[in-house]
């Protein structure tokens, strides 16, 4: 766990904005403390604490209805929390006696559909948030700034004269970002901002937007339900479940060291096996598997990512292909484990012929049903408490 995550997991509710994080001098530092919010009888946020370093990017992921958008709206100032506080650059925005309205928060917000004004041109949309310019010189300055902002988001300045329906969805999202950037916010909130785009455009737009925000040093919080997007876009991933953050860590840590089974399964496919801890390894149907550090003892549930189980002609584990799910560069192969370990290879007391596992495999070679493959495990497995 990173130091940021450890701080984020703290339950110490600070009441003085200036004492939170790095204090007033730290432009762009976001601190969210113990935020709670209910709608009627439904408690949607149950004490969310999160630190975002200045200029860094955090992705909030979680299942539908877990409270991601509500958290973002509280940070933006579109809703009031029942308890807790929001501090940006050492300035209390919400909590205690503090309340700064949304339009005074130095916070940019880009919605899923961009929410451009359809009756205004692209240029007018971008200029909307800028100071009202009067006089020829001020109008020229606005035009120059609009052109700069269009260039910043990799759009041709000629698009300024078009209306939103005359440009593509990806271009609309970039215009929405340019409009939000025009106000030079300290914090940018992206609410499912790439979800409406198709796969290729989505990756390209995400990359451009990410680079613009990083280069401008703007602290960014992205809400997404897309795990791959969160892992690739952010410096820090916050996994939300039932109104709480289950884990806040680097993308690598949350994926390879998830704190519990639900987090592991939410972030990607998981191979889960009954196992028995034996020192720093565990015995399971795949034999003896090295464990990531754990305090658990005895019976556990073991988690491996499918890509950790590799096809290797000298591997000690054998399985017969049941079927293959092809999806472009990779396939998921379902295998039934068979006996017949190599001499000298430890036989697990939990070894079970007939157990079915899924692995990920390069699609360059598609194994036909009935083929016997030999396998080995790469890296450490994670131990979770056993199923009750
Ligand atoms: N203004 C509101 N009034 C009543 N209930 C609300 C309101 N806003 C959100 N909710 C409820 O709060 C819960 C969390 O909603 P929220 O939009 O924060 O979840 P989410 O994690 O962003 O979900 P999704 O990924 O589907 O957008 C949902 O059950 C939702 O119906």
Automatic annotation (TrEMBL):
Source organism per UniProt: Terrabacter terrae
Residue ranges, compositional bias (Low complexity): 8-19
CDD domains, sorted: ABC_Carb_Solutes_like (cd03259)
Coiled coil: none
PROSITE patterns: ABC_TRANSPORTER_1, ABC_TRANSPORTER_2
Keyword tags: ATP-binding, Cell inner membrane, Cell membrane, Ion transport, Iron, Iron transport, Membrane, Nucleotide-binding, Translocase, Transport
The protein, known as: ABC transporter ATP-binding protein
InterPro entries for this protein: AAA+_ATPase, ABC_SmlMolc_Importer, ABC_transporter-like_ATP-bd, ABC_transporter-like_CS, ABC_transpr_FbpC, Mo/tungstate-bd_C_term_dom, P-loop_NTPase, Transp-assoc_OB_typ2
Region span, Disordered: 1-27
Residue ranges constituting the ABC transporter domain according to the UniProt record: 30-267
GO molecular function: ATP binding
């Amino acid at each position: 766990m990173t130091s940021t995550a450890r701080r984020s997991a703290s339950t110490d509710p600070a009441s003085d904005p200036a004492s939170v994080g790095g204090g007033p001098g730290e432009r762009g530092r976001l601190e969210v403390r113990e935020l709670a919010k209910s709608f009627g009888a439904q408690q949607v946020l149950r004490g969310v604490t999160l630190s975002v370093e200045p200029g860094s990017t955090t992705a909030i992921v979680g299942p539908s209805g877990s409270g991601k958008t509500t958290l973002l709206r509280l940070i933006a100032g579109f809703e009031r929390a029942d308890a807790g506080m929001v501090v940006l650059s050492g300035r209390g925005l919400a909590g205690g006696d503090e309340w700064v309205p949304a339009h005074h928060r130095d916070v940019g917000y880009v919605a899923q559909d961009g929410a451009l004004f359809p009756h205004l041109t692209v240029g007018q949309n971008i200029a909307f948030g800028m100071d009202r310019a009067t006089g020829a010189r001020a109008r020229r300055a606005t035009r120059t700034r609009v052109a700069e902002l269009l260039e910043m988001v990799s759009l041709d300045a000629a698009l300024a004269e078009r209306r939103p329906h005359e440009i593509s969805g990806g271009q609309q999202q970039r215009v929405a970002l340019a409009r939000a950037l025009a106000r030079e916010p300290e914090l940018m909130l992206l609410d499912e901002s790439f979800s409406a785009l198709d796969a290729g455009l989505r990756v390209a737009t995400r990359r451009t937007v990410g680079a613009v925000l990083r280069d401008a040093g703007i602290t960014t919080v992205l809400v997404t339900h897309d795990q791959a997007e969160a892992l690739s876009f952010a410096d820090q991933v916050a996994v939300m479940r039932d109104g709480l953050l289950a884990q806040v860590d680097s993308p690598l840590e949350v994926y390879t060291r998830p704190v519990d089974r639900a987090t592991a399964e939410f972030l990607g496919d998981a191979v889960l096996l009954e196992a028995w801890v034996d020192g720093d390894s565990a015995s399971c149907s795949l034999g003896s598997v090295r464990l990531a550090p754990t305090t658990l003892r005895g019976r556990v549930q073991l988690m491996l990512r499918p890509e950790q189980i590799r096809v290797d002609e000298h591997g000690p584990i054998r399985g017969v292909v049941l079927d293959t799910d092809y999806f472009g560069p990779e396939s998921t192969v379902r295998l039934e484990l068979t006996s017949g370990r190599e001499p000298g290879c430890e036989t697990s007391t939990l070894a079970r012929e007939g157990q079915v596992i899924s692995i990920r495999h390069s699609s360059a070679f598609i194994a036909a049903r009935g083929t016997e493959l030999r396998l080995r495990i790469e890296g450490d497995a994670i131990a979770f408490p056993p199923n009750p």
